[in-house]
Write a structure and sequence with these properties.
5-stranded mixed sheet; 5-stranded antiparallel sheet; 17 strands
Length: 168
């Protein structure tokens, strides 16, 4: 018998997301004025972690297309050597599906969030997550992750006995 899991997102907040990483936002952060007071710098918003095994930070733009709803989840990925940060560039909300680090994932481990268009996420090393889940339109994301020689992406495929649907 197949097990069906239906998940509805809750709003993304720093407290709720803390076990998985950082919420990258300027809300409730004090800026430092720079450039003759014409620029507000919101400094050190996430714990970027790329140095293991001589890794180097990469800065990229990912363009994600929305998946049809309800979204059917087949697998999650993790990065065992680094963090991975995403921040939307067009101000569009998106979805975030995560599970804690470990060797396996169980349906009860899954956490589902709706991120506002001014919130980014930084997944800590080893945190399981779904690839980018744009909502209503193609969306661009600024991405900071690790470059290096070693493999830094593991995938966990769910068995056919799991049907995981993501609903709005």
């Amino acid at each position: 018998m197949k097990k069906t899991v239906r998940l509805k997102p809750r709003p993304l907040s720093a407290d709720a997301f803390r076990p998985f990483g950082d919420v990258v936002e300027i809300k409730n952060k004090a800026p430092k004025l720079i450039n003759e007071n014409h620029t507000r710098r919101y400094h050190d918003l996430a714990a970027i972690d790329t140095a293991q095994n001589n890794g180097k930070p990469l800065l990229s733009i990912f363009r994600a297309r929305p998946l049809p709803l309800p979204m059917r989840v087949r697998f999650l990925e993790r990065h065992p050597l680094s963090s991975q940060a995403f921040h939307p560039l067009r101000g569009a909300p998106y979805l975030v599906l995560v599970a804690p680090p470990g060797e396996t994932i169980h349906p009860g481990d899954l956490q589902f969030f709706r991120a506002a268009g001014d919130q980014g996420v930084n997944y800590h090393r080893g945190v399981w997550h779904h690839y980018l889940l744009a909502l209503d339109a193609e969306s661009d994301f600024l991405v900071v992750d690790r470059g290096g020689e070693e493999k830094n992406c593991d995938e966990f495929y769910f068995s056919e006995e799991w049907e995981i649907f993501l609903e709005r």
